[in-house]
Amino acid sequence: MTGRILLAGAGLFLLGFLVSPASFAPLFQPFTRNNAPAIYAQTSLLSLTLSHLAIVAVAVAASTVVGLALAILVTRRAGREFLPLARTVTAVGQTFPPVAVLALAVPVLGFGTGPTLVALFLYGLLPVFETALAGLTGQPPAIIDAARGMGLTPGQRLWQIDLPLALPLLLAGMRLTAVISLGTATIGSTVAARTLGEVIIAGLLSSNTAFVLQGGLVVGILAVLIHHGFQGLENGVRRRMGLE
Amino acid sequence: MIEIRNLTRLYAGMPVVDDVSLTVERGQLLVLVGTSGSGKTTLLRMINRLVEPSSGRVLIEGVDTATLPAHLLRRRIGYAIQGHGLFPHRTVAQNIATVPRLLGWPRARIAARVEELLDLFQMDPAAFRDRMPHQLSGGQAQRVGVARALAARPDLLLMDEPFGALDPLIRAKAQADLKDIQRRLGTTLILVTHDMAEAVALGDRIAVMDHGKLLQDDRPARILTDPATPFVADLIGTADRALRLLSLIPVGAIAVPGEAEGAPIAPGATLRDALAECLWSGRSALPVEGGGVVTLDALRAQARHP
User: Fold this and answer.
1) Residues B18-52: pLDDT tens digits?
2) Does the CB of B137 have a partner CB in chain A at under 8 Å?
3) Pairing state of beta strands B29-33 and B205-210?
């Protein structure tokens, strides 16, 4: 209960700050020096936040589609031999630093949103792939046996049994990917993507701690809210299936 | 009618089911019994092709099952397993409707069939239709599992240790209910168990398997009185075979005209029940409901090895 109240409080604070940043100036004033502005006003914080969220949403959607498709492929009879390859690809995607991906992608895709999406997509592949794989392979043998015995075709088993049962784990993977991407997206601003990283970078360049703080705070609160949103969905699905 | 002809399944060159031939008549209840690793489950799973035979054939009503697509074959054969295997994300009604939906029954017909089955298994449709499997007790989940297997009115029902997860009290009731329902619907039923008592209680016929081979296939009384091999004799056990033999015969079958003292016994009760009642109440004869008596002497004669 206390958790919910805190969460709602954080959400309201964020909403208020984004709608009317100037009203929060006194809060950030102590972190400025030499009468520097306390609130970032170059671009509207609300539009930066929406753009940030849109980039993360597209990247998470792409990671989910590809990660899930890979997991489905390697759990089919015909695709089983691709499992080591898929594991390697997603692991490399996770270990290759996003900053390096940005640097490599800019010559090909140019400045802007493109390189950021690629970096986030690669970075977010591993959690979705691994959790989907666990969800698709870790099902109770009796259920698989019953589904086959009832005469479901492999396609029907996938859609009607395997995927619904893997849903809680898949949602957990998406939650991890979304939270990771939310933080990582800030570096997109180094290659001119419109993200909240813009506020943080402006703060770093002008030695204005208030900017760094408000950029980080917005990203942080968003991450907490999204984390809990996904967890709520997961718990709902689990409860329905009697998993807790 | 199911004909199993010279069915063999090899794993890594070793036969798990070794040249088994069996025929099950329409409406019969055959129990496959054996220890674990005897090949009974593999034999069962070859009938609906969850396991493909290495050699041999299975014919259902004269049609070789190998000529049908496996998933279409399975939709015609009911299948219930230990631990029920209900789909946890679907309601009781949706679980029962699985095969009718696959067969493309109209919605109204499916709903009516679900009601009918829940009624048949003594579960109030209004209370149970929309429950999730995790909200059921073990016995209820087991009944839903069997209802699901029967949903599309299969001519043949396969059951693999269907009562294995139930406690003894519920198990006895579930067995009696199953036998009753099987009689009423006239479904051919092949059931796998490791429990000889269950086999004797349920089977019209018992097929005993060991190390992949079919050792004996006969009526329960014959299995008890004439075990074909020492292994079959061991499986029956010598301690209570006389009582098991008595449990196969209803009181009505040996009642003779006469009068006796005390509370009467139902003609449908088994001789084993009658013997227990005689011993418990110290009587040497019991009146049978609707006339006649059953005597302790007659019971002893029935229990004696022929």
Assistant:
1) 899 999 999 999 999 988 888 899 999 999 999 99
2) no
3) parallel
Calculate the alpha carbon distances from B258 to B262, B269, B280, B289 in Å: 13, 18, 21, 12
Please answer whether residues A133 and A74 qualify as being in contact, where contact means their C-beta atoms are separated by less than 8 angstroms: yes
Interface of B with A in 143-172 (CB under 8 A): 145, 148, 158
Confirm or reject contact between B98 and chain A (CB < 8 A): yes
Residues of chain B contacting residue A139, judged by C-beta atoms under 8 Å apart: none
3-state secondary structure of B32: strand
Clarify whether residues B253 and B172 are in a common domain: no
Average confidence (pLDDT) per 10 residues, chain A, 244 residues: 84 83 78 78 84 92 94 87 88 84 82 86 90 90 91 91 92 93 86 85 85 88 91 89 74
CB–CB of A9/A228 below 8 Å?
no
Contact (CB<8Å) B85/A153: no
Q: Which residue in B72, B85, B88 is closest to A242 by CB distance?
A: B88
B122 and B144 Cβ atoms separated by less than 8 Å:
no
Task: Say which residues have a Cβ less than 8 Å from residue B142's Cβ, sequence separation at least 6.
Answer: B84, B162, B163, B165, B166, B174
Above 0.85 for ipTM, yes or no? no
B230 and B255 inside one domain? no
Same domain, B76 and B9: yes
Domains of chain A listed by start with CATH number: 38-241 (1.10.3720.10)
CATH number at residue B256: 3.10.580.10
Range of the domain at B29: 2-240
Same domain for B299 and B190, yes or no, is no
Residue A139 near residue A162, CB atoms below 8 Å: yes
Burial zone of A48 (CB within 10 Å; 0-12 exposed, 13-18 middle, 19+ buried) = buried
Residue of B nearest to A242 (CA): B134
Q: Model-level pTM greater than 0.90? A: no
For A165, the closest of B48, B75, B89 (CB atoms) is: B89
